[in-house]
């Protein structure tokens, strides 16, 4: 299988696999069909494609209230600003597997000796070349109608914070605490996915967060 713009694959993301289709059977069940002309298939994570934000001809902007009751996976593009900045203290940095973008469970990795372990890929990672520091943030988004509680990591979080994880970690602790206030009234185009998952990893459980920002662009 050939990966194209895979990004960080997660629950609620919309993906395209070449040659894959489905139909309703006589028993009213969904049947998956896969016909591939070549030896390899193409896999595209549509929820992480930058083109949906940078090309106005292919995106339709929705309001937060329009998508708030959504249950099925979809590519939701919204124009939002960061809200409740004074309550935004959940800027964390964690280690992630550079190949898949998923967090490394540092506690579980202790059982694998010196190597860090990616539970998503189920492999040990070379800490020098395959492990990167990334953001994990929870933040309130708002538009003219309503608010939405969301989370993001990786490139999306860096685009919103407008700083890299390493640069953020180099800031003095007081500057880290004050940093969110510099983002007040900033507007973004974002792609939102209903992750449907309340568990974001060891030590990061929440009862409210289910919307993931898969891409962000400052406007």
UniProtKB/TrEMBL annotation:
Sequence ranges assigned to domain Cell division control protein 24 OB in this UniProt record: 3-183
Pfam families: CDC24_OB3
SUPFAM superfamilies assigned to the protein according to its UniProt record, in alphabetical order: Nucleic acid-binding proteins (SSF50249)
InterPro entries tied to this protein: Cdc24_OB3 (IPR035203), NA-bd_OB-fold (IPR012340)
Domain of life, per lineage: Eukaryota
Name used for this protein in its record: Cell division control protein 24 OB domain-containing protein
Protein species of origin: Arabidopsis thaliana
